[in-house]
Amino acid sequence: MCKITMRSMFYKLLVDNNVAHNVIKVCCRSSILKKCFNKCYPYGVISSEIVIVDDVFPSKYSLFRYIEYIEYLKHFEHLVIVCTGKNINILEKKTVEDIVHEFITEYPQFENRIVIDKEERMIIDADVVYMNFYNNLDIFYKRNLNNSPFVVNLYPGGGLEFFNKENDSVMKKYLQSPLCSKVITTQIPVKNYLINNGICSEEKIENIFGVVIDDKKVNINDKKWYGLNKDRFDICFVAYKYMKNGHDKGYDMFIKVAEKICSIKDNVFFHVVGNFCDDDVDISNIKYHITFYGAHNKEWFDDFYIDKDVIVSPNIPFVLSKGAFDGFPTGAIIEAGNHAVAMFATDELDMNQGYFINNKEIVIIKYDVDDIVNKILYFYENYNELRDVSISGMNKIKTIYSIDHQIKPRIKILEYAVGGKHE
After folding, report:
1. What's the Cα-to-Cα distance from 350 to each of 94, 190, 366, rounded to whole Å?
2. Are 151 and 417 in contact (CB under 8 A)?
3. What is the mean predicted confidence (pLDDT) over 165-185?
4. How many CB atoms lie within 10 A of CB 102?
5. What are the structural domains of the chain?
6. What is the model's pTM?
7. pLDDT tens for each residue of 378-409
8. N- or C-end of the chain: fewer Cβ atoms within 10 A?
């Protein structure tokens, strides 16, 4: 009891005398001083111009934020990432310690800028804190003892829900706080929801459609096309299973579509990537036409997508929970489209807003077996049109999801926030 009180009093003394900020920054650069300081404050303190708090990084299974954060580490010299590892188990079986070790092995230049905080007890002292997803904002805000300003990127998922009064009330408190510098949305309906429900002012919101992807050049000459250099038609489904039958992601619908197509065509094959297996949904009628691959990281997909013709995402909102929804298109769809795989996706919440031209750059499907089957069979019979959709979709992705369109606006927002100009 006495030791804890003394440690707490020591830290309070530093803060009250405006010493903590400088002491902590020195500690971050000196392992000896850091050890001494931690004897006085057991959970540690992270101080930097920018601190990112995340529950999954640096797992490569969440590719968009993996790429996004690396770009920030390259651009900002004084940026630290706090890894809580809270939801890594959803994506892979490794521990956060193992994943961080792998990351540092690959990027040794960032060794001193990645911090593990599994118990979420470290004090954060930053000019600005950045987070993706509502869940990370919720965790950070409750422990923001130093009143650090923050920027949050509200991607769909991660606790963000429509029509959830309790969440709306909490989010309103967070986003209307004077510490909230900027709110980034990635879908127009999300922006409109925040404004129309009085959760956040329009002036504070910046909408940047899409996610950050690896914009590496895909060699289209390596692509295998049906009827040209292969005699089978390959359709894939890529997602994580968060509920029974993968109903929210449309996995059960995908199997129904596969069954119907296999009853019509004998050279169509189906491929499932993610934490699904052959006993999630009965596949006995198509067992010789479907393959399960498990979950994989980003490098694996380069070879996987070479001979795939279509990716189908029949995901639906408000199933995983009352107000839960996915973005459009999903990250998996975008990654496949970036490899010239034709994108077939539902858009139940009208999130496309004209970004992709239907039937030219993407094929928007209804959550209906016959609609999906008919559209797939049409392009199966008119494969030149499908190839045009694949290539046009890939080119649109390289425009919308480029570093210039995704990273640079976010960097500008963070630079502005670091300058102390938060409202």
Report:
1. 37, 11, 12
2. yes
3. 93
4. 14
5. 1-42 (no CATH), 47-213+403-418 (3.40.50.2000), 220-400 (3.40.50.2000)
6. 0.82
7. 999 999 999 999 999 999 999 999 888 999 99
8. N
